[in-house]
Design brief:
299 residues; Rossmann fold; eight-stranded mixed sheet; four-stranded mixed sheet; 12 helices; globular
Length: 299
């Protein structure tokens, strides 16, 4: 068996969880974690109650990269493309492939200025994981990584040997991406209200979420996605099925005073909608308010 070299850029909840499981893959012979700050180790508690103590090579500067790898996985926030791109030049060789594990529907567009589009694999992430500290992560339940059913997608899927992270090859990736975006866009109500998922039970909140998802439905269809009429109801149902105290990443970032992914989750709906002459006022509103909150108090 030919083993491959893999680098994961971004050691947060998603990147750290993915790296931990890759450390157990028989196909991965060399694993590098690209981080802003030094990490002693990577400790991930697993859904079955176990613990993965991984010791990948950890680098904190592109200057420390020893050469190109077979796969680069970027798991940074969608707004952090410029910082992530600094790692690509030393990591990407003529045969390297780039997998983008980020929110939104613009995975390829974000990195096309740095890597040829045909070498970029978009990945939709559904991994319930939380970062408790540098290199310390709780992987709460099994997750999925949805990828296009193409040759590069099959090669990416082969990297994962454990059922805790299941690669899903999709023949209709654009539909999968817009379905996930509808859920993420409507989830902005949590960040807007500073309340966890149980806020969906409050008067009018479910209808607001349906409206935001309906805008995704219209714009996604214009982009070529095959989305069902009941997508807004599915979004509300998924939220109601979540633990009332669950905190999505957008709310988590707001509560922690960090930058938020309002552009990749909400503004994108209005931005792409305008190309098709479709208005998305609710998502535009969410993006505007969250960007204002992120900017801090008015002097």
């Amino acid at each position: 068996m030919t083993q491959l070299s893999v680098a994961v850029v971004g050691p947060g909840a998603i990147g750290g969880t993915v790296a931990a499981w890759l450390s157990r893959s028989p196909l991965v012979g060399s694993l590098t974690l690209c981080a802003r700050s030094p990490l002693a180790t990577l400790s991930v508690s697993t859904p079955d109650g176990g613990l993965i103590e991984a010791t990948p090579r950890i680098v904190t500067s592109p200057d420390q990269i020893e050469g190109p790898v077979d796969w680069v996985l970027v798991a940074t926030k969608a707004y952090d493309v410029e910082a992530a791109s600094a790692w690509l030049k030393p990591l990407m060789g003529p045969e390297s492939r780039l997998a983008v594990l980020q929110n939104g529907v613009e995975h390829v567009e974000r990195f096309a200025p740095f890597v040829a589009a045909e070498r970029i694999l978009p990945v939709i992430v559904d991994i319930p994981a939380e970062r408790d500290g540098p290199g310390v992560i709780r992987h709460r339940r099994n997750g999925t990584l949805t990828i296009p059913a193409v040759e590069a997608g099959e090669a990416f899927a082969a990297l994962f040997a454990e059922k805790a992270l299941t690669p899903v090859l999709s023949d209709d990736f654009i539909t999968a991406a817009w379905t996930k975006l509808a859920l993420n866009a409507a989830g902005a109500v949590c960040a807007l209200s500073s309340l966890p998922a149980g806020v969906v039970a409050r008067d009018g909140v479910a209808e607001l979420m349906r409206g935001m998802a309906a805008e995704c439905l219209a714009v996604g269809r214009a982009e070529g996605a095959t989305l069902p009429d009941d997508l807004p109801d599915w979004v509300v149902g998924r939220t109601r099925a979540s633990p009332p105290d669950s905190v999505n990443s957008l709310l988590g970032d707001r509560l922690a005073g960090r930058r938020m992914e309002w552009d990749a989750r909400n503004a994108v709906v209005g931005r792409i909608g305008r190309r098709h002459g479709i208005a998305a006022p609710l998502n535009d509103m969410a993006a505007t308010i969250l960007s204002a909150v992120e900017g801090g108090p008015v002097a």
